[in-house]
Amino acid sequence: MRLKPWYKVITPREDLRDGRPLDASEFAVHLDQVRDGRAPAVYQNPREFFERTYLTQNLSALAVEVIRRLSGIKVETSPVFNMTTQFGGGKTHALTLLYHLARGGASAAEWKGVPLLLSDAGITKVPEAAVAVFVGTEFDAITGRGGTDGTPHRKTPWGEIAWQLGGPEGFSVVAEHDEQLTSPGGDVISKMLPADRPVLILLDELMNFVSRSRKSGLAAQLYNFLQNLSEAARSRDNVVLAVSIPASELEMTAEDQSDHERLKKLLDRLGKAVILSAEAETSEIIRRRLFEWYGLPDEARKTVAAYADWMVQHRTQLPNWFPVDNAREELAACYPFHPSVLSVFERKWQALPRFQQTRGILRLLALWVSRAYMDGYKGAHKDPLITLGTAPLEDPMFRAAVFEQLGESRLEAAVTTDIAGKAHAHAVRLDKEATAEVKKARLHRKVATTIFFESNGGQQRGEATLPELRLAVSEPDLDIGNIEQCLEALTDTCYYLSAEKNRYRFSFQPNLNKLLADRRATVSGEAIRDRVRAEIQKVFAAGKQMERIFFPERTNQVPDRPALTFVVLAPENDAGDPGTMRFMEEMAKEAGTSSRTYKSALVWCVAESGTVLSEEARKVLAWEAIQSEAADLKLDTTQLRQLDENLKRARRDLHEAVWRTYKNVYLLEEGNTLRKIDLGLVHSSAADSLPALILGRLVQEDLVTNNVSPNLLIRNWPPALPEWSTKSVRDAFFASPKFPRLLTADAVRKTISRGVEEGFFACVTKAADGTYESFRYKEPLAESDVEISGDVYLIPKEAAEAYLESRKTPQPVPEPTRDEEKGGRPYVAPTSPGPLPSAEPKAGALSTDAPEVRGGFRWSGEVPAQKWMNFYTKVLSRFVTTPGLKITVTAKVSPDSGVTESTLRDLKVALRELGLNEEIEEIPTDRD
After folding, report:
1. Is the pTM of this model over 0.70?
2. Keywords in UniProt for this one (predicted)?
């Protein structure tokens, strides 16, 4: 159910709607201004004053007792009242109410609430009384009053009170005492008080006058006067003296404190202490003063019901002090405010020395309501209630009012940096970057603002608990889990927020995040580079022992070896840089000044971007710097523990960043082009090591193997090679992308061993004259007996069978021997077969004698390119096992379009793979 925004249910006063909230001074009544007609209309006009005043239980009790005493009733009444409420707690407001009642007399019965007071007092009308007002902040002890306006000059409080009560006649009674600055005694005071009507004397802010009059001696005389006046009031049936002593205790000197205690004890002894604390009735006072209040509207009741149902449903997640079972009543009593808004002042802020319980709250909430009302319409905020999180801390005027109550202006930096007041404040930024639901609810800002109010209330250790935050911030349609997420983000981001075990606090002391931000700015680029590279090497060093080359800058830094090699490029050579691709292509073709043979052995590991790694390394270095300075920084136990945790987490994040960043793998594929393999989103739990993860992916795609079938060699046997050396076989796996890359070169031994045993090919060694020194075919051959050498050859099955056919004459076989020292298997050394027999004579030959033998032959001529393979098969193949066969090839290639440099480089590599001279004579072009 969509709840109606509060500002569409209840209407603020006109001045608040127009953005003209009353100044704090307008919430502070000045009795002298009321007396002489200078006060605002809301205080000056008694009818309007009573319309806006909520008669709390204590205020009503005071009024009833005063009008009974003024009526001459002494039963259960007191003549003297000491207003002991906290500074700003409504004392002057209560004195103003008594002033209007005594001055209004019978006409007061028409004002709102007065008939109920008369009923409780048991009288029919308010007695009209003579009223005198003395305000210590207004009366000057040196200049006094009058003397220039046709009235007598009054120098003392008793002279001023006598003048107000009796005019010239009354003042004449104490004129001499006023002139000599001496307090009158009880007899004189009795004459000073009018005898024909009730008397009400109101004394406000006495301490201010005492503090200013101490040197002149008037302070001591005032004490005597107050004592004598109290005694005189007690002796009369219809005289009331109501006194408010305080200035703020923060502003008192030691002498002030002493005089304050003397006055308080005097009044407590002779009179009655009045406590005007409203507490549970504060919300009603506020609603009367700030809104056009005519009772709880129906739409408000719907909101109250929705919130109450939510609170009951989530009772286990809310603070114990909140009366969940009475949630509906609490919400109804506070609407349009959330109960936590008003309760935070009672639970926490009222302990502040500067806090003004009624006046201070009214001032803050007037600014708050005015801003929230305008923001609601202009910003389309649809908050059902005014919550702590909606406090307009971005408003400098509101912030100033808050800091005035807190007595702590140093919180300015914390508020504007972390909550609101600047466009880049952390909570504001987090909301902009958040999900749509959180962004619309302004949840980071609401949570941060609530923490501020809950944790800065003057307690010994102010803090906001998680249950308090849930209560203050949650709404019926809001996912309560979002609050914890916002808290986590704020804790990781804010500079002045501290957190420990679900307890949060804003203060003016910078936290570790602020220290981190300061240290991050001082970390050098060189230190970051070194730390990043060290971590990359650490990550890639784990796992199997394959070759690793780190951060090459030139092609000659990557060795040209027949071994699988991980080339880990520096993070600056990221995958998005076109220069990175060109650099890898150069490494594939060149090894310094020479062409690269084993280009297929290279596997390039390339970073997606080096930025993340640099930032993570900067964080690690900053935390380490803070740790080294911990003693000088005077960190507390909690901060030291958090520092240790943050450092561990930063190191872990850097480690994980290497895994995430090096997600790109490049290698050669057929056609000598680079193929990219994206590993996707990887992390350290995906494999034992990053190299192992990369190898696993390459094995999965048959790009790397440790088990090669002999059939693969047969399928890829170079047509031009009747004999293929084991060295060339091994090299082919690391030189040609046609072959899978071998994890280790020993895989070739295994393949040759299996191929010989299963008759795919034979393994032979040759003597200087071309005869075979050993011949292994279709027999067990241990892997350890396979020699990888340019002098050990594989010959195809057909050639092996032909060789065996030529050896039909049995050859003596030596006894097998065993190398006892090495523990090897029996090895039978084959006898040298001698040269293969020449070809049989053609059918139809006339002579049956032994064929005539010649010394050999030599042929030269031009073979068409299309007939080269036929020439080899028909002419040369029968002599491939003859030691005396020497082939010299001269090839001239000069196409009209010429030959590119890259083609020439590829030709040299191919010649090197065949074990041939790679020197090529270049033919100049016509342009040369």
Report:
1. no
2. Coiled coil
